[in-house]
Specification:
The protein is an alpha/beta fold. 42% of the residues lie in helices and 17% in strands. The chain contains 24 helices and 20 strands. The strands form three sheets. Strands 1, 2, 3, 4, 5, 8, 9, 10, 11, 12, 13, 14, 15 and 16 form a 14-stranded mixed β-sheet that branches. Helix 14 (425-438) links the parallel strand 18 (413-419) and strand 19 (441-446).
Length: 694
């Protein structure tokens, strides 16, 4: 009867400009889809070149190599008898578009350009691409000669059209178009399109996955239909982790769910669904049918092919499932861990080095590396040959099999406690115990000799010896002495990262991990070019509050009992002298604000787009039970002074895993000046006027 259609979607760990690897992963996904009986295969956005090519999109080489990969796909027997939908950049009449290229049996059916471009937050698509603005309009696209020789076609349809097969009608959306208020699937559904596809390049943000799932399900809840979403996964060369979550939905309910975090480079979802379920669902929605009778029709590209079989009465179809979401603590444990593994294997380094202070931030970073080791061992146990091959390359042992996370951790992870005369025995013990429990190769060293040598040079040159405040020195002297300690730790971290394996008779070098959280970066509570300066930082986009919850999760999940004392200790930089052997310096006292307050300031500044005056107006109501208006004004002014004074530090911030929408990442997410008028005279005067009125 031709009712049951079998379709496939996938999540691929593509890598920007890795045309060879990207092609191989595309082929694998098509092979899996065909073996599972699919007649249509959808891939992620720009999967041929990789989503994160950035300014490489300007290069003609990127377009050329994308068409060369397309040529390989078109001419391969592996792509026969299945509609393949792949993503790549295309230059049409000297304008560059982000496109889907849909083909079948060596013939290109349609090139569909993206209509709504993502251009907020981490996305800059309008920098490289132009949106297709001609609704329901199709033009002729003249194919390059290398493609003409394979397809025998001189031109193909290019534009906003849908595919009409023998048994159904398909329409494409690309990533941002699902999030747009006027999504194409609305009008397409009214025009009789029964299967909607969406190829995405959507990255992970804590607590975001549910929004994507809700959008997909709601797309067909009001209008009926089948919705298929593909997404990129993994680190494709920058701060983002694309979090998979490929899915298939029908009539508002999920029928297939892909993993959000996984070390599998290729994941394929296949579902068999009954088209009659779509038609009967739509039949009783009278408001939809009235709107459909007046809709402006889409151009249809006729395809002499069916997604179903003639005799399919006995074919079982998929039933709705309940989507399982990860908790934020699970997201922190898995997302940055997968990102670290991609970075490690693709950078061809031999492991990581982390300055482990015994505090919450560096301990959370260590736990993420330990989680990565768990994921590697689990993937190998489940038969992932790619992960096994990568693990053997990392440890330089072709016979090695990672089975125990602690043992693998010792091979790839070095932790280093860098003591000074201002360090307490408590933090030293905490760091050592945590290193023992996760299995890292742990080093204890003392930096006092190096600090004295550097300060000694200054004293010889100037004839002055700076002192800490507790010994009668000024705040300038004390801060400079703290910064010397912090910066020497950075220098030593890189020295040990380069030569520790050499000293142990092992090949390779280590990547240095940073461990400054998003709140400290926002406030600027870090020394420029200290241990926050590293190769990468897995927690740089995560708040202190979430990190504390993650530490508790690790205590329960990994039985890391060493974390209990770390959780209960007040956060401290340990850069000022001890008093009777005890730490007196604490982070929150130094900052003049709590971490909980910092999170609120960060969200208001970035997400709510609040300047000093707007932030005061919001907080004076939010905190009316605990603060007077004058106290609120004082807190807001202090935050903006400290934020603006320290904003220059963001220009050199270590590349961090993007996890929060209030990240101060200066690279492309949070674009601000780094030389402010830190008096904020006009803004603060507006606040004072309001305080007096209140």
């Amino acid at each position: 009867m031709g009712r049951a259609v079998t379709v496939a979607t996938c999540a691929l760990n593509q890598w920007a400009l890795d045309f060879e690897g990207n092609l191989e992963r595309i082929f694998r996904s098509i092979d899996i889809a065909k073996r599972k009986g699919a007649r249509y295969r959808l891939g992620p956005e720009l999967e041929i070149c990789g989503y994160g090519c950035s300014d490489h999109y300007y290069e003609s080489d990127t377009l050329l190599h994308s068409f060369q990969v397309l040529e390989k796909l078109l001419e391969s027997p592996a792509t026969q008898d299945i509609i393949c939908d792949v993503g790549m950049p295309v230059l049409h009449r000297n304008v560059r578009y982000n496109c889907r290229v849909i083909f079948l049996n060596k013939k290109i059916l349609l090139i569909r350009p993206k209509i709504s471009l993502a251009n907020a937050g981490n996305y800059r698509e309008l920098r490289w691409f132009t949106p297709w603005s001609k609704a329901r309009h199709v033009e002729e696209y003249f194919l390059p000669r290398i493609i003409q020789e394979v397809t025998g076609q001189e031109t193909v349809p290019f534009g906003d059209a849908v595919l009409a097969t023998k048994d159904t009608c398909l329409g494409a959306e690309i990533c941002e178009e699902l999030w747009a208020p006027n999504s194409p699937h609305i009008e397409m559904g009214l025009d009789g399109v029964e299967i909607f596809t969406n190829s995405s390049g959507s990255h992970h943000v804590l607590r975001k996955a549910h929004a994507r799932v809700d959008l997909v399900n709601s797309a067909t809840a009001k209008n009926g239909g089948i919705y298929i979403l593909a997404n990129q996964k993994g680190c494709d060369g920058d701060r983002l982790y694309y979090d998979g979550c490929a899915m298939i939905s029908m009539n508002g309910e999920t029928v297939a769910q892909g993993s959000q975090f996984s070390l599998d480079d290729v994941e394929v979802l296949v579902a068999t669904l009954d088209l009659e379920d779509v038609r009967s669902y739509r039949a009783e929605i009278s408001s939809r049918n009235l709107a459909a009778s007046k809709v402006n029709p889409y151009p249809r590209v006729k395809v002499n092919f069916a997604l179903s079989c003639p005799d399919d009465v006995a074919v079982p179809t998929c039933m709705p499932i309940q989507w399982r979401h990860h908790s934020p603590e699970e997201e922190i444990s898995l997302g940055p861990a997968c990102w670290l593994w991609d970075y490690l294997r693709r950078s061809k380094q031999a492991g990581f080095l982390l300055p482990l202070s015994g505090g919450i931030d560096s301990s959370a970073t260590a736990c993420i590396v330990y989680s990565m080791c768990h994921q590697v061992c689990l993937a190998v146990k489940n038969g992932n040959a790619d992960v096994l091959a990568d693990a053997r390359r990392v440890v330089n042992d072709e016979t090695y099999i990672p089975e125990d996370p602690r043992e693998f951790c010792r091979r790839v992870f070095t932790t280093c406690y860098m003591a000074s005369e201002n360090s307490s025995q408590d933090t030293c013990n905490r760091a050592k115990l945590l290193a023992e429990q996760i299995g890292s190769y742990h080093i204890n060293l003392n930096i006092d000799a190096a600090v004295k040598a550097v300060v000694g040079i200054f004293s010889v040159v100037t004839g002055q010896t700076p002192r800490f405040s507790v010994y009668g020195g000024s705040s300038r002297e004390s801060l400079a002495l703290q910064n010397v300690q912090a910066r020497i730790r950075m220098v030593l971290a890189y020295l040990f990262a380069q030569l520790t394996l050499w000293a142990r008779g092992m090949p390779g070098g280590l990547l240095v991990l940073g461990s400054a959280n998003v709140d400290e970066s926002l406030r600027g509570y870090l020394t420029k070019y200290d241990c926050s300066s590293a190769d990468i930082n897995p927690i740089g986009g995560i708040s202190k509050t979430d990190l504390k919850n993650f530490i508790q999760y690790c205590i329960e999940t990994f039985q890391l009992t060493a974390l209990r004392s770390i959780m209960s200790a007040p956060p401290t930089a340990e850069l000022e002298p001890l008093v009777d052997g005890q730490v007196t310096q604490t982070d929150e006292a130094d900052m003049g604000m709590t971490y909980a307050e910092l999170s609120i300031y960060g969200k208001l500044r970035k997400i709510a787009k609040a300047g000093p005056y707007s932030m005061f107006c919001k907080l004076v109501n939010m905190w009316k039970e605990i603060c007077t208006p004058r106290e609120v004004a004082s807190k807001v002014k202090h935050f903006f002074r400290m934020y603006s004074v320290n904003r220059h530090k963001m220009t050199t911030l270590t590349p961090s895993y993007h996890a929060e929408n209030y990240s101060p990442d200066d690279n492309r997410f949070d674009l601000r000046p780094f030389l402010y008028n830190t008096s904020w005279s006009w803004q603060f005067r507006c606040i004072d006027k309001q305080v007096n009125a209140l």
